[in-house]
Amino acid sequence: MNTRDEIVDAMNGENRDLPPPMVFTQTATTSQMKACGASWPEANSDPVAMARLSMQASRGFGFAMARVPFCLTVEAEGFGCDVDMGTADRQAMVTGSPYRSMDIPDVPEMPEPEVFASTGRRRVVLDACKRIRKEGEDLFLVSACVAPMIVASHVLGAENLLMATIMDPDAVLRWERAVTPCIAGYASRLSEVSDGVCIVTEGNADFIHPDTFETFVTPFTGAVLKGVKDSYGILHCCGDTSPTIGKLASLGADGLVVETDRDPEGVLKAVGGRARLFGGINPVKGMMMGTPDDMIRSAKRYADIGYDMICPECGIPPQTPDVNMLALSRYREM
């Protein structure tokens, strides 16, 4: 059996047995959508559908958690980006912005942080959290927000931003300074209504050079983490973080969710106890394309290595079969 108390104990470093299964990233699958009657795109913008779909991981498979939202577009939309709300088997994505050009434009007037946090789809996520609290009070509730550099890449365009970090770094920093108060304020609001705030940040060596991490990531993601005052703060980063894992671990998060299959023991050593480490399941090779036996072997391997919770290391693909969701949830019983 999985329980909320086990997850809280693991967050506090108090595992007494095999670490509990958990999901800090996107949870929805097409099968869950059919089972609960809530699906994308509606569940990306309606708080009732969002709450229902997020709780299906518990109701269908026994996970002691719920997680909202299902995409990385909520903050970007609040800064004027165009968003394709997706389909039942495809997540919402940012498709454009009025601020994308070869030269980084001047920063426009930004919304007040409180207004940003309480309007648009930020309000949808907050309302969904409150609904989950009422209907699933025995679940560990994780909400997520996107850190300033990723938001800036959505607004300015990833290629433009990457070039500007070399050619015009001050322009990138002006944008990050401008969006950070809004995102930190939103993270603070999320922390009031959830048990943990998962901040999707940047640390992928293919996107951010390790030598510039402390310029473009540390002060801004650090400020968002400081906004998480009433719950646990968790950092998630996709891709190869081996050159930056020590820097990520030093930002002050309670836990880290990163890709580790290149060297799981090395990642644990590099973190050095500065944060709890969660992971072990590759979302594509494991969750979507693997077998239940693959899931159980991987989960138990990471438990033996010393990871604090066993979870997918990135968002669960919507095509993931039920048998793999169930195998992860029940890996300790098999």
Please tell me about this protein's structure.
This protein is of the alpha/beta class and 334 residues long. The chain has one domain: TIM Barrel, CATH 3.20.20. The protein is built from 16 helices and 9 strands. A hairpin with an 8-residue loop joins β2 and β3. It is globular, with a radius of gyration of 19 Å.
Layout of strands and helices, then pairs:
Elements: H1 4-11, H2 30-36, H3 47-61, E1 65-68, H4 74-78, E2 82-84, E3 93-96, H5 113-117, H6 120-135, E4 140-146, H7 148-156, H8 158-167, H9 169-193, E5 196-200, H10 213-216, H11 218-227, E6 232-237, H12 245-249, E7 255-258, H13 264-271, E8 276-281, H14 283-288, H15 292-305, E9 309-312, H16 322-329
Parallel strand pairs: 1-4, 4-5, 5-6, 6-7, 7-8, 8-9
Antiparallel strand pairs: 2-3
Task: Offer a few descriptive terms.
16 helices, about 325 residues, TIM Barrel, alpha/beta, two-stranded antiparallel sheet, 7-stranded parallel β-sheet, single chain
Global Rg? 19 Å
Strand share of the residues?
5-15%
Number of strands: 9
**How does the overall form come out from the CA principal axes?**
globular
Reading the helices and strands in chain order gives HHHEHEEHHEHHHEHHEHEHEHHEH
**How many structural domains can be distinguished in the coordinates?**
1
Quick check: average pLDDT? 96
Instruction: State the strand order across the main sheet.
Output: 1-4-5-6-7-8-9
Low-confidence runs of at least 5 consecutive residues: none
State the name of the first-level CATH class.
Alpha Beta
Enter the CATH topology name.
TIM Barrel
Structural class: alpha/beta
What portion of residues is helical?
A: 40-55%
The rounded distance between the terminal residues' Cα atoms is: 12 Å
Instruction: Report the major sheet.
Output: 7 strands, parallel
Please work out how many helical segments DSSP would assign. 16
Question: What CATH architecture do you see?
Answer: Alpha-Beta Barrel
